[in-house]
Amino acid sequence: MGGTMDGTKRQRRGDTRQRIQDVALELFAEQGYEKTSLREIAEHLDVTKAALYYHFKTKEEILVSIFEDLSQPIVELIDWGKQQPQSLETKQELLRRYSEALAGAAPLFRFMQENQSTVKELRIGETFRNRMMGMRDILVDPDAELIDQVRCVSAMFTLHAGMFVLQDLDAAPEDKHKAVLEVAIDLVTQAHQATHTS
Question: Contact 146/137 with Cβ under 8 angstroms?
C-alpha cells in the first residue's frame, strides 16, 4: 500500500517544481523579471520561501530551468535532424515538429521577446542563438544559391513570426498555425527544388 503513496508524493514534488516555473514565468511576463522577487513567487504559490528554496536558490535558476525544460524538445529535434538525410522530407518534417515545439514554449518566447536585456545577461540568448544555428544548418544546403539559403532561414523565422506578430490576426488559432506552417514549408520546398534541379 505504501508504494502508491510514495508515487503520488513524488509526482507532487515534481509538480511543485513545475508550478514554481509556471507562476514565475507568469509573474516575469506580467511585471518584468527585475521587479519580481522570490518572495513574491512563493506568495503566489502559497508556499514558504524555504519550500521554494528547496527547488531553486535564485530567480536566475528558475528562469534558466524554464528555458532548459521548454527548449529541450528543440534540442532533441536538432539531434534528430542531424541524423536524417538532407532530403526535402526531412526539412518539411523538421519544420512541422519545430512548429509544435514552439507552440509548447510560447510563454517562454513571449517573455524572451519582452525582456531582451535579462535574456542577454543570463546568456540564455546565446544558447538560444546556438540552437537556431543548429536548425539552420539542417535546413540550409551549403551549396545552395544565396537566395535559397535566405528562403530556408526565412522558413524558420516565419514560424517565429507566427507566434508573435500574427497573434492578433483575425483567424482561428489552428488556421493560423496551418497557414504559417504552409508558408514555411513552401519556402523550404522552393529552395530545395531550386538547388536540386539545377
Answer: no
Cα separations (Å) of 24 from 2, 40, 43, 58?
A: 33, 9, 11, 11
- 1-57: CATH topology: Arc Repressor Mutant, subunit A (1.10.10)
Q: What is the DSSP string of 34-92?
A: TT--HHHHHHHHT--HHHHHHH-SSHHHHHHHHHHHHHHHHHHHHHHHHHS-S-HHHHH
- Domain borders along the chain are 1-57, 59-197
Distance between CA atoms of residues 118 and 89, nearest Å: 37
**Cell numbers found for residue 73:** 524538445
Residues 127 and 67: beta-carbon distance below 8 Å: yes
Helix (H/G/I), strand (E/B), else coil: 185: helix
What would the grid cell of residue 188 be?
523550404
Question: Cell 508556499 belongs to which residue?
Answer: 47
pLDDT digit string (tens) for 109-121?
888 888 888 888 8
Q: Number of helices (H) and strands (E), helices first, in the chain?
A: 10, 0
pLDDT in tens, 60-110: 999 999 999 988 999 999 999 999 998 999 999 999 999 999 888 888 888
